[in-house]
Amino acid sequence: MNIQTNDIGHVIQLAIAPVFLLTGVATKLTVLMNRLARIIDRTRVLKDELRKAPNEECSEELDVLYTRWQLINYALTASTACGFLICVIIAFLFLDDTANLPLDRYIAGMFVLAMVALIASFIFLLREVFVSFRYMRMHLHDTAR
User: Fold this and answer.
1) Tens digits of per-residue pLDDT, 41-61?
2) Cα separations (Å) of 66 from 88, 107, 122, 132?
3) How far is 110 from 88, CA to CA, in rounded Å?
4) In three state form, how does the secondary structure of 43-79 look?
5) Are 70 and 92 a contacting pair, CB within 8 Å?
6) Mean pLDDT, the chain, as a whole number?
7) Is 48 exposed, middle or buried (CB count within 10 Å of its CB: 0-12, 13-18, 19+)?
8) Whole-model pTM?
């Protein structure tokens, strides 16, 4: 196992693309966490209002927030799985080159799984946004009457 400086440079070049992808996933996780924090904050306000007096509108909004919370949690889970797989891919790229292990099929498979997880995360985020918009549209029509 004689590792040359050129070999390490080549492996680092191969790992650059997954690192950029990992940066994007980390940014997406930040967005998801911010959305989750807003949902939690609004839930606390509504629960305080419900403690004062029963309110049908507050209960309805809490149900919508619970649905949004579930979707954001699914998106967070999928994004975290994607980030984890990207980290493993980077490690496997180094192992493949430095230890001369035939890991190319595993790397390709994990990359496909990472992309599936990323796609799932975007789908859950989009679904959460649609639920939020639908509730807002319903609420706007109610106040216009």
Assistant:
1) 999 999 999 999 888 989 999
2) 33, 37, 19, 11
3) 8
4) HHHHHHHHHHCCCHHHHHHHHHHHHHHHHHHHHHHHH
5) no
6) 89
7) exposed
8) 0.84
